[in-house]
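Sanity check. The docking grid for magnesium ion depends on where the pocket ends up, so I'm generating a full predicted complex first rather than guessing from homology. Inputs follow.
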Amino acid sequence: MTSRFPRLIAHRCGGALAPENTLAGLRAAADFGYHGVEFDVMLSADGTPILIHDETLERTTNGRGRVAETSDAELARLDAGSWHGAQFAGEPVPTFGDAAESCLALGLWANVEIKPSRGHEAATGRKVALAARDLWQGMPPPLLSSFSIEALTAARAAVPGLPRGLLVVAPPKGWLGTCRRLECISLHCSRRYFSPQLLDEARAADIPLLLYTVNDPLDAAQLLRQGVAAVFTDRIDLISERVP
Ligand code: G3P
Ligand code: MG
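Predicted complex below; grid placement will be based on this.
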């Protein structure tokens, strides 16, 4: 079951090596030999899926205000790179379509985290699933995941055949039941809440366990050796397949 995922997944496209959720990040992941990336997808005011983590623009762009209230035309004018470093000035906020195209061109497997703005859970789940189906048509599909049960439910209803992962911080007692109900094939949880018991439960249920965010190479190696299916990392410069 674990072989379907790259064991190392660059968090928010390129981890710490590039501005998060950008095409520059995807290029960084590929440059560092990564085969898998994770990124966050939210809807603009026009209903276009775009890559961004926060519900507001301030932290990662030179814009202001709520993503859900910002048009595609306004988003297209933003700089999502300068906050990370002058060499990334002018890096755009990518559309999901742009990111998919880059992933396919670079040979990157993707975990698409559906990251809805509050109140837009179902619409985001549905839109992202439909877009993913079309963007990866004829190719091995990305893995959709979300903290939002509503978004996962809508994604399943829209495109039942796309793989889904249940994303949590700390796995609640009934995580397996939720996985089964939503027909999720994987469990993604915070490394802080990892335990050998959780791994045993996941293994017994044949559910790959993916942990975020693991930035220590030895920790990553130990977790993978124990049977964790994959780790999400910001340190794509330190953690590689060569790490024992
Ligand atoms: O999908 C794993 C991880 O990205 C979840 O946390 O806040 O970085 O999106 P966050
Ligand atoms: Mg994420």
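Relevant for the grid: The CA atoms of residues 104 and 210 lie 22 Å apart.
Also worth noting: Strands lie at 8-10, 36-43, 49-51, 109-114, 143-146, 164-167, 186-190, 209-212, 230-233.
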